[in-house]
From TrEMBL:
Alphabetic keyword roster: Membrane, Transmembrane, Transmembrane helix
Protein name listed in UniProt: PASTA domain-containing protein
Biased composition (Basic and acidic residues): 82-100
PASTA domain span: 133-199, 279-345, 346-411
Any Pfam family: PASTA
Transmembrane annotation, as ranges: 114-134
Annotated spans, Disordered: 19-48, 71-100
Amino acid sequence: MSDFLSNFDSDNYKNMLNEKKNNKDVSSDTNENLALETDDLQSSASDYDKQEFDDVDVMFQEETKHVNDTKIKVKRKRKKSDKGIDEDHSTGNGVEHDVEIDPDYKKKQQTKRILIGGIVGICLLLLYMVYYQMTRVSVPDFSGKTVVEAKNWATENKMKPEIKQEYSLKIDSNGIISQSVTPNKKIKKGSNITFKVSEGADPKGKITLPDFETMSKEEVEQWIKKNKAENVTIIDEYNDKIETGKFIRLEFTDKEVNKENYLRQDIANVYFSKGKEVFEKNISVPDFRKKAKSEVEDWAKKNDINVEFKEADSDKIEPDFVISQTVSPETKLAKHDKMSVSISVGKAVVVPNFANYSAEEATNVSPDLQVVTKQSFSDNVPFGQLIAQSVEAGKKLTGNDNKTVNVTYSAGRPYIKSFFGQLEGDIPKLIYENFNSKGASVTYEVYYVDSDKEKGQIVNTNAYNQYISTNAHLVFAVSNGRYASLPDEKTTSQDE
């Protein structure tokens, strides 16, 4: 219908004004003027084909019936201003026009504006919501999480984390204690957020150690976990005497630490028994004969075998090489088993019986021995016979042994000569050189007598020019010179 009216206007109203007052309110006298304007329109259209107009009117009525919104379309004469009418009359174009009035037009325009405004508002709201979501982030609950997780989250969301550390007995080290922003709260990216992070238990905190002797291993483990005593270590070790799982001992690495002054930072070891260690016999013993001692030592260390080395002389095996072994080759041993190995010390020198040799012969008996001879007085052994030798006869001396042999021969019984005329001051020398230097233990004493002998001379003794025992006690009489002449006077008298 609208297309038809458009064609109708273009064909019949070529001089129609371009401007229409669509937004002008219909005055209250519209209904009164409708009939008049209709008659005017019909009379002014007398120059047109009446039949064509009737057809248009019929179509107009049919179209109006099918409009759902009860739109009323009427024909009215477009009002013009006086100026416009004068212009039409002055130009001789006083033409009247058909105009359609839609009573719901204003309402539609308002609805359109509201709809457009609503759409714009919704778009702006959506844009704001998108912006809000992009610039805000929901803060998770970091309880039970580590500081590393918190820092990673802060980095991903461009947050500025501040870490404050404090000791905590409940939260493990590096665990989050609390956070400055409530969990699930949305905050702007780039904001500051503070985390309290646990440093673990206070290392300088004093701990009362329990009586570990009455506790099982599992109970000690629970105590360590409960008290955050991370420096208390449980060590299992084999023990042949203590039952498996029983307490062995408590040790502190610092000697100044004890159960009374123990701090959490101090290191302590609690030992529990694993019982007796049992090993499988799966170690094969090699044939070590004529092998070097070092080879046996390496094998024993590698396989944890206790090897006892015994030295023995050998004319055929070089020193430090194996002569024999107590465990046969290919025998299976277990860890900590024992075996012995004989190691050659080379050819041995047999110490002779020096009783068969004189003191002169003894020094030349063996070129491999260094023989030192001496003489000593003896109350029982005759002169020239052997009293003793430092190394027993028949003993084998090897390369590592001292090959010096001291041999003592008898000088017989001590014999004291006459010491008359000797001075008192020479007595100690006489006793040592004549007796005690050769193994005797002779002692002496001195007493003084009136004598015409020069003062200090020995004038008598309890034994002289005879054999004495090795432990004899000698008594010397020494002149006090009471009746003796002075040495100068004696010399003068002799000259006369």
